[in-house]
Design goal:
Helices cover 39% and strands 27% of the residues. The protein is an alpha+beta fold.
Length: 85
């Protein structure tokens, strides 16, 4: 398993549009991607689960990537977070 922490910089947090993009990016990975916050965790492939976390600007999330090609998948997901969230 590979994990990284990221602090959300988007002014409205993970709302519908970026959550949809996040799901799409996670589904492109062979590895399982999980988002963890102080409030709980969610499979990054499930839109409603991500939205239910209620992640706001300034919240720190931990992204865990486990499975096939996890090292590359973690790099890809980190680049996604930096570009979109």
């Amino acid at each position: 398993m590979v994990a990284f922490k990221y602090t959300i910089t988007d002014e409205v947090g993970i709302h519908a549009r970026p959550a949809g993009l996040l799901v799409k990016a996670a589904k492109e990975q062979a590895a399982t991607v999980t988002i963890k916050t102080a409030k709980g965790s969610a499979d990054a492939r499930k839109l409603m689960a991500i939205m239910a976390l209620g992640v706001k600007q300034g919240d720190e999330v931990t992204v865990e990537v486990e499975g096939e090609n996890e090292e590359q998948a973690a790099k890809d997901m980190q680049a996604f977070f930096e570009a979109n969230l």
